[in-house]
Design a protein that fits this description.
The chain has one helix and no strands. The protein is mostly loops.
Length: 95
């Protein structure tokens, strides 16, 4: 089921189509942005699993990406943050 990548709200999307200016009814976030896309992944290069996409710097603002597909709305804020992961990696390799 399509959902907001920021707040996790379930969205009513027809055939997984989202207009560039549509917003989440729950949090007001612009939906045609990287953080709501099914290709968005913070663990890969450019934070996008689509190798041919021209990835914008601002992942939370609406964009014109031709590869955009509305994701499942997984709340990415629930896991450890980027800072926590960097601290753990530094501690692991510290002498």
């Amino acid at each position: 089921m399509p959902g907001c990548g920021k707040c996790g709200a379930v969205l009513e999307a027809t055939f997984n189509q989202t207009g560039r200016r549509e917003t989440c009814p729950a949090c007001g976030s612009e939906l045609h942005s990287c953080i709501h896309c099914r290709h968005y992944d913070e663990t890969v290069a450019k934070e996008c699993k689509e190798p041919f996409a021209e990835v914008p710097d601002d992942k939370e603002s609406a964009n014109f990406c031709d590869f955009f597909q509305l994701g499942d709305g997984a709340n990415r804020q629930s896991g450890p943050g980027k800072d926590a992961l960097l601290s753990a990696a530094e501690a692991l390799f510290k002498k």
